[in-house]
Structures
1.
Amino acid sequence: MTQSLRSFRAERERDWVRLDALVTQVERGGVRKLSDDDLLTLPALYRATLSALSVARETSLDRALTLYLEALSARAYFVVYGVRTSATSRLRSFFLDAWPRAVRTLWPETLIAAALLFGGALTGYLLVAHDPSWYTALIPPEMAGGRTPASSTASLRETLYDTGSHNFLAAFAAFLFTNNARVAILAFALGFAFGLPTALLLVSTGAMGGALVALFAQHGLGVALGGWLLIHGTTELFAIVIAGAAGFHVGKALVLPGRVARTTAAAVAGRTAATAMAGVIVMLAVAGMLEGIGRQVIHGDAVRYAVAAAVLIGWLGYFYGTGRRGHG
Amino acid sequence: MADAVGRHTLHVPGHARQLITPEGVALRLELPLAGERIGAFLTDLALIVATLVLFSIAVALIAWATGGVGGEAYVVIWLLGAFVLRAFWFTLFEASPRGATPGKRWFRLRVAAHDGQRLSIDAVIARNLLRELEFFLPLSALAYRAHDGAADAATALLALGWTLIFLLFPLFNRDRLRAGDLIAGTWVVRAPRALLASDASLTTATTLDFSDAQLDIYGVFELQTLEDVLRRATPGAMRRREDDPLAVVAAAVRTRIGWTGREDDHAFLAAYYAAVRARLERQLLFGKRRRDKLDR
């Protein structure tokens, strides 16, 4: 071995061993366990090792040394460029900044998704109001839960003001496994298929809602149904609309990537959409709780509408109002 | 090559890829074989199911022990736990410093950012959300319908076909990206293994006098093969078996360079290795890299 290489190695070996120890420590226990001193030297050691690797590749024929440096550099790279999560601060920045900002970025798609949803609802309402046999076509029996055109007014009224003691549990279970949660996630994920299935999903979900309203309206229970639906419905429908918007956002990035490569556009859109979707899950949880508590406790129609309106204004203010406060 | 716990494991070569770090150095990584990824995923599923079973038993025991007081609360806790487990298992583990779920760790894989930049938590979330679409949703929809008795051949074909298409997705692109990887800008690579703080460089006490012509015969490839042979051999053994690689190589080299000395095989090869390496490294400094003995 030439003298220069021998000294090259001797000078640096101590640093490599130290980097090895630090990297092993982080791999085992996480970055938190390192002292401040170690935390400061880690990136410097990493860069020094990288340059030693470059030198070794060019000037040394000691394969063991090169392989060792390759492995050490790769491990150190993953440690230095790993995910930086510190749970509380990430959570905080999510709620204060990332989530509202993601939803604000999605505003054009949100409008489109809302239009599709309400368009579907209107269509469903008009269809069933005109011809009740459309009801069974739009709402499959397992989801109707006993509410059919053949039901009596009394039985329908009962579903709106049911005071059974299992309500909270049923609502919570419903949140986790219900049709609506699946619709929301599906609406986002199907954006991958260029947004078309998402559009269909929004329209059909809206149509189901519209059909239900038409059915109850025929018995004169339209307003009461509105209250029953909207307590949690404002949150839940908003969540579905945002999920659809997130899906459209990804679909649009795949179809019209603009000046960047398609994969890059998809990755950027995916990140915004993922943030929005995390928020959607939170909204669905809130909707589930509102559903359980609201229906059990609140029976007056006016109060139900008031709660629904207040919650909606709350969400709108949170998403679209926070930014301006930040700038001012 | 020995790793940090001293195992000489058989290394099945994966597909070599380069990752350019933000500092501009190209790190050599390997893509795993298809079987490794599938194995990791199945292991994760098995672990999720096992954890769920244990969790259910624990909740049931606690409920039974306290006489079922607050019965609703237990069911709510169970539902929460099951949901969190399925939804967050992959995300939380892949966001750790190891970048791998237990299943991936078993197979020595990890997640990395495709462009070499920092792996962000949003990317991890996005790639796992799409797994819902690829795998969990169609199959749970199928199970749901089968439970209701409404699953016919068409539904089963649709759900299974859907999953199969996404399963085969990685085979159709160069870097074996899943649909979730494509959207999130990540990829799954083999985790770099910790190698021993380099095996002591091959030093030798004996220096023999080789002529330039004798040193000029071999190139880098032969040198590294010789290094392998020397590292695996035990020095100092006086008698070697006929087919010991060291003896075979020593005999071949002696014949090739016409060496008539009577040194021990190991000492001879170690000295020859040192001399050839010094010569080739000096040539490297002048920008000449001789790849193998046929490269002039």
Note: Chain B touches chain A through 72 residues (CB under 8 Å).
2.
Amino acid sequence: MSLTREEIEKVALLARLRLSPDELETMTVQLSQIVEYVEQLSELDTESV
Amino acid sequence: MSIIHMSATELLALLDAAELTSVEVVLAFLDQIESHDAEIKAFIHVHTDAAVARAEEIDGRRAAGQPVGKLGGLPVAVKDVVCIRDELTTCASRMLEGFRPPYDATVVEKLRAAGAVLLGKTNMDEFAMGGSCENSAFFPTHNPWDTERIPGGSSGGAAACVAARMAPLSIGSDTGGSIRQPAGACGVVGMKPTYGRVSRYGLVAFASSLDQIGPLAATVEDAALLLEVIAGPDPRDSTSIDQGVPAFSAAVARPLEGLRLGLVREHFGEGLDGEVEAAVREAIRVYEALGATIKDISLPHSKYAIATYYIIAPCEASSNLARYDGAHYGYRTNLKEMREDPGGSLVGMYRQTRAEGFGAEVKRRVMLGTYALSAGYYDAYYLKALKVRRLIAQDYIDAFKDVDLILGPVSPTPAFKIGDKINDPLSMYLVDLYTVSANLAGVAGISVPCGFSSGGLPIGLQLQSPPLEEERLLRAAYMFQQATDWYRRRPPCVDGPN
């Protein structure tokens, strides 16, 4: 799932971080990749956990 | 054999027999630091004067027949994530650049009570986030076996200083493999105890449900001795386990009969370097010759371990690192005009301080954790990860019904070159694939040297035990060590017989 630049900006505010335009760019790409990777957990049935 | 080539156990025997003084020992290691650390850069701070003074004090006590403790006079290096009172403790971050804690961590108190000589603070990935020591805000540490390569991380300095014989013992921390992986990369012994075995009081928190302090050393018996000193319940750490510390150093040399070792079939698949696999398979043969039986086992949720870890750890980190705000600790931004923020000047001060104080990896993980904990995403990410963590822990419980210990590689490849993965965070995270599960499940794990790549780089063998079975782990590791001689080899930069 790709994160939008807007979402990244919102998260940066929550995280109390100020990101430069370059950092925002890179962060959007990298976090999208990582979030896409961790989303595989949704494959698992954890109803009974 | 010169002082720096001896094990801690050997040095202790000579110290006790008055054939060496602690001052001689400490000076020998300080000398080694002096001559090699410009190249290796394992240390952020070296406590030269304090170490010599302490050594003199211990020598005085010994000469007067007073007790000197289990580590009496031995130098110990400490990862810069552990608080030593009034000494710079930076976590390799600009955020804590001038920070001097007002207290000693429990492990430091225990080291002092045991007569250890604190040598200095070792380099690490910033706030323990990383697997290469490249994320230090100050400088990267270099692998003593090939200085163009990483020493591993985040306890890279602690592993490198032992490998390069700049200290016989060091203290590291392991949240997702940060002791075991650098130990493997540097050809030394490194252990993550059971979660709760060693107090985290005074350990700067990264991920509180995963962090553990542990020993690094050149030999298994040395690691056992150091673990014995630092372990134990602590009322100041409510997650520490209320159990006495077994006499690890006395037990370590007793072999185990009928040892049942499990090989995790999911760990021998894609991504595992051929030479690493060959070294591990050779280690299996060594164990079989020692009378162990090998069983093929499964940890079915293995493939989800990295995803689980890289949700939980960043989430906990985002919470733990919230305290670094320019108000509680030393660093605060000076850029007055940058404090202006739609959220107000206080928010602006926080944001700018953290922008300047934190490095890229820390920011990445704080952002990831904040995202995964935020409203609307908490259930899908953090809560889900907690549930999968439970499944991973259950995999271990099931596996340990049939085997005594789990055996396998500690890293998928030997040490890579500095710079290779720095622009690809996800590929860097995947380096942890064999180590994160132990932290998620709370079990103990150790890395011991088991061979070298054709390029002369160390390969580490990992053993994992059920919770609180460190004695079993150490005894099994010792059996392997005594049947091989990988641990005797030294990096080319270290002078002396090989």
Note: Chain A touches chain B at residues 3, 7-8, 11-20, 23, 27, 30-31, 33-35, 37-42, 44, 46, 49 (CB under 8 Å).
